[in-house]
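Bug report

Summary: structure tokens for TetR/AcrR family transcriptional regulator differ between web form and batch submission.
Environment: batch mode, default settings.
Steps: 1) Submit the sequence below via batch. 2) Compare with the web form result.

Sequence submitted:
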Amino acid sequence: MPPRKKFSKGKIIDSAFEIARIEGLESITIRKVAEKLGSSIAPIYVNFETVDELKAEVVKKTFGVSHQLLMEHDTGNPFRDIGIASLRFAKEYSVLFMDLVMKQNEYMNDYDETMGKDLVELMKKDTALKDFTDKELMEILKKMRIFQVGLSVMVANGLLSVDVNEEMILESTANDIILAAKQRKKGE
């Protein structure tokens, strides 16, 4: 009898991520992951007690991919980079984007609090935002996120005409939100 193949936890997560990337999070099953690995279900259950535990790890990996896309857009304008990375994620990982953004799920419960703090820290490096408090930056981020999610949904679903430059729209809207916040701050 040939020896059983051993799979690392990371390899199992990668296989489940590929299933989710193409078919969605709800398509992840222990059996599908085992098939993708060319294995029985045993190695998966050695590493994960339930499919929900595996899905949670896939979501963590997804957030890691999203963060990596952000780090690849280091233009010196962090606020712009956040939006561009989000649009890129919506294009390249449209099924996962739609699963996480368009469907109610427990995976996004902590997203705003956790990622929001990280993104505010990143925004502090943007010279156009240097005069804002953390609270004001969070408010700017929330407003931009509302716009950016809508734009990303349109991008993920192919709803924008080919002559629309989503990066220019994103940048223009970001500038408008920052300008309005600066004017409001002056008026206080």
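Above is the batch result. After comparison, the two runs are identical; trailing whitespace caused the diff. The CA atoms of residues 61 and 144 lie 24 Å apart. The chain has a mean pLDDT of 89.
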